[in-house]
Write a structure and sequence with these properties.
- The chain is mainly beta and 114 residues long.
- The strands form 2 sheets. Strands 2, 4, 5, 6, 9, 10 and 11 form a 7-stranded mixed β-sheet that branches. A 4-stranded antiparallel β-sheet has the order 1-3-8-7, with no helix packed on it.
- The relative contact order is 0.33.
Length: 114
């Protein structure tokens, strides 16, 4: 499985961005796809995860502001980020989990200015 993330950029506080993660390859083996973010000097942490059945899990810090969704026909997963805060500034990456492997896409920078 290969993942391609896009949609990052610079936005003012209170603004919105939508990240996209395009999956290719053996997408039928994917059980869940998640968005993670990494702050400078910190490890990546989960932001939101969506399972193949559509169940979602969010980090407490983004609940009510971020929404993860998937379009199975297009092999796409999206992260709609609203009410962005400067503390959301990070490198965001998507991750796919299958029974026997995990795959990462490249990161995309999200910068929220105050």
């Amino acid at each position: 499985v290969q993942l391609q993330a896009s949609g990052g950029g610079l936005v003012q506080a209170g603004g919105s961005l939508r990240l996209s993660c395009a999956a290719s390859g053996d997408t039928g083996s994917i059980r869940a796809i998640g968005w993670y973010r990494q702050f400078p000097g910190k490890q990546r942490a989960a932001v939101a995860v969506i399972s193949s059945s559509g169940n979602t899990v969010y980090a407490d810090s983004v609940k009510g502001r971020f929404t993860i969704s998937r379009d199975n026909a297009k092999n796409m997963v999206y992260l709609q980020m609203n009410s962005l805060k400067p503390e959301d500034t990070a490198v965001y990456s998507c991750n796919a989990q299958a029974n026997t492997f995990a795959a990462w896409g490249q990161g995309t920078q999200v910068t929220v200015s105050s």
